[in-house]
Fold this protein.
Amino acid sequence: MSELVTGEAVALELRPAKLPSRGLAVLIDLVVAWAVYLGVTVGIVASTSSLDDAAAAAVAVASFVLILVGGPIAVETLSHGRSLGKMACGLRVVRDDGGPIRFRHALVRGAVGVVEILLTFGVVACIASLVSARGRRLGDVFAGTLVVRERVPAAHAAFIPPPPPWLAGRFAELDLSGVPEGLWLAIRQYLTRMGQLDPQVGWAMAERLAGDLAERTGAPAPQGVPPAAYLAAVVQERQARDARRAFGGSGSGGWPGGPGSEYAAPAGYAVPGAPAPMGYPGGVVPPGPASQPAAPAYPAQPSGPGIGQEGTEAAPPGTGFVPPA
């Protein structure tokens, strides 16, 4: 899907962490992990002094794997990408599309990190980060993740327009497991920059993205719904599910920040009193009119040769939406 993200769509609004801050975070994590490992080792040696050499060696290997390998994986999974070192340096591990990581991402990062950090004393990780344009080590490349800076001004956060209220919860039962990360990234980039695109180019791109998304979910856009609104509704549903995994709760996949929702709005859409988007100072969005952006106007189907189909009625100007029947 990289060919859909043209120069007109602009790059994803994430701020990759630089090598010095990442190195400091890894150093803090290693110091903590080794301190715990040495403390546990002393306790194990004292409690297994009666065992034979083979059993003592097996216990030592198991403690090494559980603490120095399994420990970071568990911490990143439970904290959704924030280890002690990363919290101290204001960093977080996220997916390529900016969403929170899961166990499989942390597992791949931890497994590869044994080779490129522990066994080579971080030399391989440093070289890979310097070569990569986004500062990613090999574990990030294989896991599809990125270490980003959390402490950034709120103005840098990308605004993803929320879907119209009558589409809220429309895709709560949709199976999103078959959608690749590259497609999510392309959709996010389009939604954050669709207002800067030429109307015909933007409409064609939205139709192609909506078609690709429908192929992988089995649910095409409802009749009369602009493809951009369909994309925003599905992205909102995915963000609501990610938020429920990250913060708990059993709210439905409805309008973010509304009744029945346990979490906030899509990235860049602030709801008073809700957890703030990544990088928002203070951690909670304060009340006030500044936190309530105006309702977005999705582009209506442009007129002109080659756009749309014969006999298809364009959406009314202004909002670009056709109310459901």
User: Anything to note?
Assistant: The first helix runs from residue 19 to 47. The radius of gyration is 23 Å. The CA atoms of residues 17 and 145 lie 12 Å apart.
